[in-house]
Structure formats: C-alpha cells, structure tokens
C-alpha cells in the first residue's frame, strides 16, 4: 500500500543503543499524539486476546552523522511548515515530561543539542527534509 504521507525519524548515529531506542519510542509517540488519524485498529490474536492499536503505516528511521545534520533537517522542515517532534541530549538527564519541556525551552533553537527528530507530512516534502540522509544502520 502506498501512503500519501511519510513518517520519518532521524536519530543521531553516535548514541548508545538504549538511547536510540528511547529516542525512537518518544518520537513515535509524538507523531501518534499529533496525528491520531494515523493510528490503526486494535489488534486481536487467534485466542481473542486484545492488544493496543499501532501507527498504521511504516515508520522509516534515518541516521544523522552529527548535530549539524539534524539542525539542517529541522530548518528544512520548518521552512516547509512541517512541525517536528524533537528529542535533545539534555532530555536524557530528566525524569519526567515537564522537565523535558523545561530543558528544551531553556535553549534557543540554533543551540539545541538535537539527538532526534520525527516528521509526518506528504511524501515529497519529507523526502526534501531528509535529503542526503541514509537509513539508520
């Protein structure tokens, strides 16, 4: 199935494995919260056990070699009116959502120590935002 939109996550390559997984989970939840229409139907197995619904389209995960690549993607997204979900390195040091927002609010956009971004937009727009990045290895 071809979707009109694309969901892309960009995660900095130099993070520890646990950090990459944490960032991917948080960024995906940001997309789900912003676009409830992308959530599919709940799951049920052959034993009639119910499970939560998931995002109903593929999520493509790209690697960023450094902070500059993430900043470039952020600028490209914002210039195309694509609102991203973000994760900064400072958020690893917090323990709750309010503190996460505080550490982001304390830093100007140009100085954010980005480790991850997520976008959902028209396919061609997302392709322009992520241009030059490769799938995460």
Automatic annotation (TrEMBL):
Entry-linked Gene3D superfamilies: Bit1 (3.40.1490.10)
InterPro entries in alphabetical order: DUF2000, Pep_tRNA_hydro_II_dom_sf
Domain of life: Bacteria
Pfam families: DUF2000
Name of protein: DUF2000 family protein
Organism: Bradyrhizobium aeschynomenes
